[in-house]
Specification:
By secondary structure, the chain is mainly beta. The protein has one domain: outer membrane lipoprotein receptor (LolB), chain A (Clam), CATH 2.50.20.40. Strand 9 and strand 10 form a beta hairpin.
Length: about 200
C-alpha cells in the first residue's frame, strides 16, 4: 500500500510503475427501490507516452424485469496538471462525484492502520483473498464524498482477485459513508501473465 498511498500527482506513478498502471474508481451515489446509480472512472497510465487517460461513465442499473444497465452520460478524460480534463462538454467537472482520489490524499501505512479501530478481518485460504475493515474518521476520506468535515466512515482494504491473475501490484480500498460507497483499485500493468504464451 505504501508504494502508492499517498501519491499527490498521479503522473509520479510512472517512476514507481514504469510499465504502466490502471486506476479504476466506482462511486455508488444513489439507490432507489428500482435502480442504483454509479459513476465509473477508468484511467490508464501509458508507459510509452507517459499520458494518463481513460473514460468516465454515469450508469443506471435496474434489476426488473431483468438486470440491465444504461449509460446516462459518458466522456473521455485525461489527467493533466494534477486534475481531470473532461472531453465531453456535456459532462461538467462538477459532475465528477468523487472530489479526490484516496490515492492522492490518504497515507496508508502500518502506523496509520494501527491507529484505526479494526472492525473485522477476513481471509480465504481457497482464493488467497483477504480484507481488513476499519472504522475511520478522517478529513481526507470525507473529502472524497465532498464533505468539509470528518464523518465516521468504513474503510475496507482488500486484495482483489486481479492480484492472483497476474498483476504485479494491486491495491483495493473501499469507503462507505452515509449510504454512499466509493471503491478505488490500482493495478500495475507490467508483468501481466500471458497465459503461457
Amino acid at each position: 500500500m505504501e508504494r502508492v498511498f499517498p501519491t499527490e500527482n498521479l503522473e509520479d506513478l510512472f517512476e514507481e510503475f514504469p510499465g504502466g498502471f490502471e486506476l479504476e474508481t466506482t462511486f455508488w451515489y444513489k439507490e432507489t427501490d428500482k435502480a442504483s446509480y454509479r459513476q465509473d472512472l477508468l484511467l490508464k497510465g501509458d508507459p510509452e507516452t507517459k499520458r494518463i487517460s481513460g473514460s468516465i461513465l454515469n450508469v443506471k442499473s435496474e434489476s426488473e424485469p431483468r438486470y440491465h444497465e444504461k449509460i446516462l452520460k459518458e466522456s473521455g478524460v485525461r489527467y493533466e496538471d494534477r486534475q481531470l480534463k473532461i472531453e465531453n462538454p456535456d459532462f461538467k467537472p462538477t459532475d465528477v462525484m468523487a472530489k479526490n482520489f484516496l490515492l492522492t490524499t490518504l497515507q496508508i501505512d502500518k502506523e496509520f492502520l494501527h491507529n484505526l479501530k479494526l472492525i473485522s478481518k477476513e481471509y480465504s485460504f481457497e482464493s488467497g483473498n483477504g480484507e481488513l475493515i476499519y472504522q475511520i474518521n478522517n478529513d481526507s476520506v470525507s473529502r472524497v464524498f465532498g464533505n468539509t468535515e470528518a464523518v465516521d466512515s468504513t474503510l475496507r482494504i482488500g486484495l482483489p482477485d486481479d492480484f492472483l491473475s497476474g498483476f504485479q501490484f494491486v491495491s483495493s480500498v473501499t469507503l462507505k459513508e452515509n449510504g454512499l460507497e466509493y471503491n478505488e483499485v490500482f493495478r500495475e500493468l507490467k508483468g501481466v501473465r500471458d497465459n503461457g504464451k
